[in-house]
Amino acid sequence: MGLLIRNNVQVGELALQQATFLLPEAARAIEIGEQLDAQRTVSRGVAWKNSPHRDHDRRARTRCLPLPGGLLAAMKVPESGMPEETYWESLFDIPLILDRLKIDRTVGHVAELGCGYGTFTLPVARRIHGTLFTFDIEPAMIAHTLARAAEEDISNVNAALRDVLATGFGLEPECCDAVLLFNILHFPQPDDLIRKAAAVLRPGGRVLAIHWRSDIETPRGPPLHLRPKPSDAPRWADAAGLTVAEVLDLPPWHFGVVLAT
Ligand SMILES: C[S@@+](CC[C@H](N)C(=O)[O-])C[C@H]1O[C@@H](n2cnc3c(N)ncnc32)[C@H](O)[C@@H]1O
Prior knowledge:
Elements: H1 9-22, H2 24-31, H3 38-49, H4 54-58, H5 85-89, H6 94-100, E1 110-113, H7 121-127, E2 132-136, H8 139-151, E3 157-161, H9 164-167, E4 176-182, H10 191-199, E5 201-212, H11 233-240, E6 243-250, E7 254-260
Parallel strand pairs: 1-2, 1-4, 2-3, 4-5
Antiparallel strand pairs: 5-7, 6-7
Helix pairs in contact: 1-2, 1-3, 1-8, 10-11
The structure holds S-adenosylmethionine.
S-adenosylmethionine is lined by residues 75-77, 80, 82, 113-114, 116, 119-120, 135-138, 141, 162-165, 182-184.
């Protein structure tokens, strides 16, 4: 079941991104697990983009999509699956987190590893003046986030299917003011990922990481032994030639780390 991308990952990325954004039929097909031919879907999507039914159809695409199985298992972070969306989004004080991380109108382009449901993607996109480039290894998460962005008329989200651990962000060097690593740094050697993040930061840019605390009981989060700690921050910074600018409390359950160029 699920979306089948027949060609290589590059073709799949293009197809899914364009198809789900442009063609509601494609999003519905993904929902019911229908198989799509990537190239054909893109060309039909472009035709639909110019059709008068577009605005009406956009509103139909809000349902949560099932996760397709086994499409890109390559380097998915372990324990990075998500609970039900409403529950997940009840676990964060999003305005507080974004305020403390100083995500506001002064911020230009941003890259994000793991959009998930778009929990942070959409509120961040609303605050910044640049584009939010977000990536996920799960096609359903990309489709869902793009559908939410369309529903909320947010036009500065660019979401693509990508294994960021394996291939990096695929963005121009030094193009971003910030890279978001939210609820993702729970694997043993994140140094290489921090370097990939640092590579797309312009001078003055920041890596912004948040994660579940391991010094208190939390209602969710990966197993305690996998969770990163604020004390890991100097090692991450050293690995990528960054400095630890701030360690933050992000109640109720998270801490944050700001690494600066
Ligand atoms: C725990 S969720 C967090 C989502 C979002 N950052 C948030 O905090 O709401 C982690 C997300 O990262 C994605 N992910 C895991 N490994 C990945 C990889 N190697 N490349 C891109 N995305 C990945 C998962 O599919 C999942 O959607």
